[in-house]
Design goal:
About 45% of the residues lie in helices and about 10% in strands. Strand 6 and strand 7 form a beta hairpin. It is α/β, with parallel strands linked by helices. It is globular. About 25% of the residues are buried. Helix 6 packs across helix 8 and helix 9 packs across helix 11. The chain has three domains: about 170 residues, P-loop containing nucleotide triphosphate hydrolases (Rossmann fold, 3-Layer(aba) Sandwich), CATH 3.40.50.300; about 70 residues, Helicase, Ruva Protein, domain 3; about 60 residues, no CATH class.
Length: about 375
């Protein structure tokens, strides 16, 4: 019964009792199928795998995915945090080499000294603590995919080594001499403007051009609000399966709030809000009361834009602020006017924790809230 059996019958078997149990099981199965039909099969237009999109931008992205899935060329995926960059990479991988490993590496979450070993592996005794040979991600991926997330956070030193890998399709383990051939496909993602970083001297131009063979630029959720209803349907079907819930949808009033909200965290924020609401929901339709985060204090796109423009106002008429001045003002504003901790602020800004720490130090901002 714990494993999922519907019922049990004692021996010797009573035929009438068996017949009744089978009828009950079939009726229960029929009801489950009807519910699943409502929850698991929402309307999905122009989707590839689990990607939801109906606008022209998303249609072009679907075409690009179909094209690059037929080859093993390098792909650069750009977009704000929470727009689904890793999902795009996984779809391309599954359409190209689904039987091989997909290995994601967050370049901002690993310190430089360890990231090199993570990517390329190391030989025994190559550094303190290297007690045995370790294979890196490029070897472990075999003929699959290495997905380099937050590529903009990679140090200049490692950028040079990655460039060599892309050029020669081989590398050496840390502390080793033997050359190892790269068979994996390389995809990278960033929430930064790499082209601008190249102009500012913060990212190697030759590596940028090597990565940017095929570029996919994901639009933020606020610029494709027509996708919010089908996204909600899809996410609710997924959440229902994970949490064993039977949430059918959201109320009309709540949908209006969703459609006017700016979604700084994009699809990830939408999913997190829906998960929290489903956990505490008492009914099958989610209403305003299930989303306290988007209650009276939430603001539509226009109101948030008006508030944000205060950051860009120069102290003297006719003059303009530098990018650093705007960035500093914006960071100080978020810290001052919200109760967010460092992790939440990093998600709002679309930057990694190490980058946020560097900006605090750069602008002399004291921030100890956790």
């Amino acid at each position: 019964m714990k494993a999922g059996a519907f019922d049990y019958i004692h021996k010797p078997v009573n035929v009438d009792e068996l017949d009744l149990a089978i009828k009950k099981a079939l009726k229960s199965l029929e009801m489950e199928k009807k519910i699943d039909g409502l929850l698991i099969e929402p309307s999905r237009n122009f989707r590839v795998g689990d990607i939801i999109g109906t606008g022209n931008e998303m249609r072009e992205i679907f075409k690009t995915i179909g094209t690059v899935s037929k080859s093993r060329t390098t792909v650069l995926i750009q977009g704000e945090s929470g727009t689904g960059k890793e999902l795009i990479a996984k779809v391309i991988h599954n359409n190209t080499s689904s039987d091989e490993p997909f290995i994601a590496v967050n370049c901002s979450a690993i310190v430089e000294t360890l990231l090199e070993s993570e990517l390329f592996g190391h030989e025994k005794g190559s550094f303190t603590g290297a007690v045995a040979r370790k294979l890196g991600k490029f070897e472990l991926a075999r003929f699959g995919t290495v997905f380099l997330d937050e590529i903009s956070e990679m140090s200049v030193n490692l950028q040079a080594k990655l460039l060599r890998v892309l050029q020669e399709m081989e590398f050496e383990r840390v502390g080793g001499k033997d050359r190892v051939k790269v068979n994996a496909r390389i995809m990278a993602a960033t929430n930064k403007d790499l082209k601008l970083m190249v102009k500012e001297g913060k990212f190697r131009d030759d590596l940028y051009y090597r990565l940017n063979i095929v570029a996919i630029n994901l639009p933020p959720l606020r610029s494709r609000r027509q996708d919010i209803p089908p996204l909600i349907d899809y996410l609710l079907s997924k959440i229902n399966l994970d949490l064993h819930k039977k949430i059918i949808g959201v109320s009309g009033e709540m949908m209006e709030k969703f459609m006017s909200y700016a979604w700084p965290g994009n699809i990830r924020e939408l999913e997190n809000l829906l998960v929290r609401a489903c956990v505490v929901a008492k009914g099958q339709v989610l209403g305003v009361g299930d989303f306290p985060e988007l209650g009276k204090d939430s603001q539509p796109i226009g109101a948030q834009a008006d508030q944000t423009t205060e950051v860009f106002k120069p102290e003297e008429p006719g003059k303009f602020l530098t990018l650093d001045q705007v960035e500093e003002r914006y960071i100080r504003k978020i810290i001052k006017e919200t109760d967010k901790n460092k992790g939440e602020i990093c998600e709002t800004l679309g930057i990694s924790r190490p980058t946020f720490e560097r900006k605090l130090e750069k602008y002399g901002i004291s921030f100890e809230r956790e």
